Amino acid sequence: MKFTKFVMFLLVIILLPAFLYAGETKVDQLLKEVDSWVTTDTAQILHFIDSNNTRTMEMLKSSPYWKSVYNDLSFLLGIDYLGSPQIDNTGRIYFLMRITGQNEALFYVDGPMQWPHQLSPNNWSEEGYSISSFRVHPSGDFVLVSIMQHGNEMHDIWLFTRDGKFRPLLQSPTTRYAGIIFKDDNPDEFFVRINSGRGLTLGKYSISTGTLDTIYTEPGAFYGLDYYQNKLLFIRYFSFSETQLAMLDLTTKQVTELSDTNLTWAASFTEDGKILTLTSAMSSEEEFMKICLLDPVKPNKFKVIYDPKKETDDLTFIEKKGIVLLALNNDGYSELTAIDLQGNVIPVPQPEIGVISTTNGNDLGDFVFSFSSPRIAPTAYTFHLGNTDLQQIGEISTFGVDFSKVNVDVIRYKSDDGTEIPALLYVPANAKKDGGNPAIVNYHGGPPSQSRPYF
Predict the structure, then answer these.
(1) Given 74, 88, 192, 368, which is the most exposed site by the fewest CB atoms within 10 A?
(2) What span, in angstroms and rounded, lies between the C-alpha atoms of 162 and 160?
(3) Confidence check: pLDDT of 445 > 70
């Protein structure tokens, strides 16, 4: 009943202008029958309009639904960003969303295009808190949120439970906590990277007891990646392009070096204890990184299962499904590709020419990703493996500007040595191709970056 009244209330607002417009066809006739001030006294006309506007607003505000509808519409029209989506094993989708002029807040929906529910408090912005990242536990029972206060870069960890309750777990003005890794065999514990300014340490935190134990440290920069049966994958960083993959046995505290110095951007345990990795270990200097499998009992014995022959922007591996979702850079725009552990390509839907910034998935084969294009403001999409349809997670306001008629294509031209150079061509849909249109040629520098078709 409440929903019906809500719809009728909106219909009144929508139909009023249409009713008034219909009367304009009889304007001349009506003017002959009204008082002369309607056509001669500007001040009285303006007073009449103002008094009617006031009366209309009084009528609308007297409705019991006015406040909720006004707040809801104002909220929806002010959203200018939605991103960093994650999905748990119940299908609930979490993301960061921003209302113009405010900091990002953490929200969730129980399905695409459903009403968003806010998790992080409204007063966090007033207290100087900002969300730097978050991790959703696969069960959906809780979310760990990494926050900063006044931009201090000392990331604290807060716990948000499914019932909406929240509390801080790790807080320090001098220590940075990051790199959360969940334990598949114990949801009460997680691993975290600790940076106190005196070096990096891996710690294990117990949610029920509130205790943080140090489990491993070594000189230099190293970052935890994944956990499997009392073993932790981590990566050592020697420079921007030099890394080493290693594994820590939590029982013996022994470290196994799994690779020589190369470039590794991602690594995860498979369901049978092998390691899937995006690495340059099997690439020449002229090649991009490849998807490889490695048995940890045979270090440096990488097996290539897929060569994308393109730069990989993002990777999500679903251990339970044995499926890898890749966001590849194809001449500047993003292309989705999915493979199994044998390297077989699995059909997935493709967005229009734009950029995918993050991907995520659950054990059921549901995937989510952030996306923006010259026609689509930053938002997120979801799809189920085996389904070629994309569903938008949330609507973003363009504040009355229509970007739908901007066409973008990838074109190519030859450099002096004959190399084909890709370029992005933006053309209004209604442009006449007669050579008379003004144009901007925007030369973008590089390497290492490139111009990409963002919103």
Answers:
(1) 74
(2) 7
(3) no
